[in-house]
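Input sequence (626 aa), recorded before submission:
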Amino acid sequence: MKLSSWERDVIYMDVDEAVFVDRPSDSSSDESADEMDDEEVNKKKAKRVFFIAQEVMTSERTFVDVLRLLNKDFRAAVQAASRDKGKPVIPEETLNQILMYLPQLQHLNEGLCADLCTRIDKWDQKSQISDIFVKFGPFLKLYASYIKDFQQMTQVLDDACKKYSAFAKVVKEFELSARCCNLALKHYMLKPVQRIPQYRLLLQDYLKHLPDSSPDMHDTRLALQIVSNVAHHANETIKKEERFERLFQLQERLIGGRVIVKPGRVLLKEGEVLNISHKEPQMRNLFLLNDVLLYTVTMPNNLFKLMAILPLYGMKVVKPPLEAYENEFNVITVERSFTFAIRTPGERDDWVQAIATAITENAEKKSTLKSLRSSQVKRSIYESDGSYKIGTKAPIWIPEARVTMCPICTSDFSVRSRRRHCRGCGKVVCNNCASNKAPLFYRKYQCARVCDVCYEKLYTDVTKMRDIDVHNSVYNMKDDIYGTVSECIGLTHDDLEMRFKKADTKRKVRHLPQRLKEVCANDAGSALSAYLHKRIKKNKWQRLWFVVKDKVLYAYKASEDVAALEATPLLGFEVKTMDTETYDGIDASLVFELLHHGRTMFTFHTDSTASRDRWVATIQEATKLV
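Predicted structure, token format:
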């Protein structure tokens, strides 16, 4: 078989012991060997340069097909639907606003693609592509205009789909067609925004592998400068280039076709968190943008499934008051609220600071839109202490593992007494105390199961409302996961009252000594609270939640219980640490005892020496009369 010179060269570049060309003998001079090494390096570079040029051409051909899909195929689908209907499904002017710049971009890139294809076909005659980019360079500024108006075009598309139902049907059918590959139209509209950064990366790679003596060196540097200038000009509109490109990368990793990229939106922070709001903790990923917080699930191949988009406007981020939960923070929004846990308190503080700053900056941008109506809404959703009124925001669900009794009737949870989350306050209550249903503002006034306390509070609030108050509350709703605003239009005060459903259940309140109910496990005014291990008998320890308040040590089964198991006044006690290396199989540096008249009454151990020292200091202070 006879090989061409190009094929022999390729084989020679890839195989050390190639036999298809005459290789220099061992007796060749050092000068000949150096010349052969230089020649081999140049051949490898030439091969790499050709492959990059070919990649530029093939990616351009794919991009041109995207432009034809938008400007030609989609436009044809709209025109066909208009002919079938006998009238336009959308005004021509509106359609042109959606497809703004696309006819010009298609014409520009078809010419660029044709020249690139011709150059690749005749590569042996002229091994250059950068002069083509220099030729089309002045016209690439059109991309900056497209990027600047990208948000406006997508907004016009959204508004048109809402206003013209026939057009919305055309868009949906087109997105489901084989031509569109079941992807959203916005997915393709995003491609021109991404193209300039792609040009720059390809030209940078091309320049990196060009031989110093290449005739394309000068044009490549000039082309790269032209493309970079266009990108810089575009980034003046979309803020910082680095964050915008990170957002592009995130867009590519999101499953579901939801477009999150728009001019002015940037990615501020991302990271993995543990969602402990549900019955079982779940690892999730958060992406903080300057106007929304993305809540996602990690999928294979480093992809993410978008579970929720939480607007920063109206969001609140808070730290739990208890020191034991120093790794956690709460995110509260109208639609959903969460409790997240981070590895360290420092990381938690970083997240809280980043979200709080983003919320403040986003609110300042919207401050010009505030009006008397918005101030009325604030009065209607906030209590006098600044907290949200029951039912106006999705509550933070207390983890079930942190509650062992109903906070209303104090009955212990069991197989017969099931746990229920109140949709009003988020507390875990028993089935009997959460049998009532009430309409909730954040659920578009849909009925949901609430506890007895929330039911009475919500019913009292509704009885004070007038029809105008109901109308104003509906006016300030937004479409979300709970439904559309149109479902609530026309609601009256009487309609809301009729939605309350009082269950006829018999509640048995467990009688406990008052001293065990004086302090709740999550009391914010306690001197110290955390989990400790209490020695029950030899080699047996029980993990309980302990609280020190008003010189009394309270013990609870869990950190959200409302009644203590026992209450021990600390006056007269003394605290003693261990002198031995171990105690009952536990590191003695973690153990301390409570003695009364020289007799050991209680023995505890902590999880760290720092925690033990805090407990010893706090209890010693509580044992003193003054």
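Checked by second reader. Residues 30-85 form the longest helix (56 residues).
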